[in-house]
C-alpha cells in the first residue's frame, strides 16, 4: 500500500492526540483516518520548521471528504479532496507556531457541514 513507511504513525494504534513522529528522512509523518464524521487522530502536534507529510485515508464507501488547513498568514493554505475509500497525502512545512483548525467543509444542501458534525481537529505547531 505504501502507507506503512518507517516512521509512519498508524491511526489504528493512535490515541486522539499524537506527537507526529519524525522519520529518518527528517519528515514528520502520520496517517489519519477520515470517516463520517471524524478525523482520527484529530489532534496532531508537529514541530515548526520541519516538513510534515500527512496521509488522510478515507474509510467511507460513498461519502467524499476533504481536508482543509487554511491560515494564509501562517503560510498554511491546504485544500485536498479525499474521494471515498481513497487516500491523499499533503505535504507542507509549518513556519509559525500556533494551533490551526483541520476540517472537512463538505455539506449537502440544507444539512450541517461535516465540520459541524464533528469532522475537525487541530494542528498544533510547536
Ligand atoms: Cu467530510
Structure description:
This protein is mainly beta. It has one domain (11-125): Immunoglobulin-like (Sandwich). Helices cover 0% and strands 45% of the residues. It has no helices and 10 strands. It has strands spanning 17-19, 28-35, 38-40, 43-46, 52-58, 65-71, 76-82, 87-92, 98-103, 120-125. The strands form 3 sheets. The protein has a 4-stranded mixed β-sheet, with no helix packed on it. Strands 3-2-5-8 form a 4-stranded mixed β-sheet, with no helix packed on it. β6 and β7 form a beta hairpin. The radius of gyration is 14 Å and the shape is globular. The protein starts with 16 loop residues before the first strand and ends with a strand. Residues 1-9 have low confidence and may be disordered. The chain binds copper (II) ion (CU).
CATH structural fold name = Immunoglobulin-like
Share of residues in strands: over 45%
Structural class given helices, strands, pairing?
mainly beta
**Which sequence of strands runs across the widest sheet?**
1-4-10-9
Fourth CATH level, the homologous superfamily: Cupredoxins -  blue copper proteins
Find the count of extended strands (DSSP E, 2+ residues): 10
Q: What's the alpha carbon Rg, rounded to whole Å?
A: 14 Å
**Average pLDDT rating:** 91
The gross shape turns out to be: globular
Q: How far is it from the N-terminal to the C-terminal residue, by CA?
A: 31 Å
Instruction: Count up the helices.
Output: 0
Ligands, ions, cofactors: copper (II) ion
The main pleated sheet reads as: 4 strands, mixed
- Count of individual domains: 1
CATH class: Mainly Beta
Order of helices and strands: EEEEEEEEEE
Amino acid at each position: 500500500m505504501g502507507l506503512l513507511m518507517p516512521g509512519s504513525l498508524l491511526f489504528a494504534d493512535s490515541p486522539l492526540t499524537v506527537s507526529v513522529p519524525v522519520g529518518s528522512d527528517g519528515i514528520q509523518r502520520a496517517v489519519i483516518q477520515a470517516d463520517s464524521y471524524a478525523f482520527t487522530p484529530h489532534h496532531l502536534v508537529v514541530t515548526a520548521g520541519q516538513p510534515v507529510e500527512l496521509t488522510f485515508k478515507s474509510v467511507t464507501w460513498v461519502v467524499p471528504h476533504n481536508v482543509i488547513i487554511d491560515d494564509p498568514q501562517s503560510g498554511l493554505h491546504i485544500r485536498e479532496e479525499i474521494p471515498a475509500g481513497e487516500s491523499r497525502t499533503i505535504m507542507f512545512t509549518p513556519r509559525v507556531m500556533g494551533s490551526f483548525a483541520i476540517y472537512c467543509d463538505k455539506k449537502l444542501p440544507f444539512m450541517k457541514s461535516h465540520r459541524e458534525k464533528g469532522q475537525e481537529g487541530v494542528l498544533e505547531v510547536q
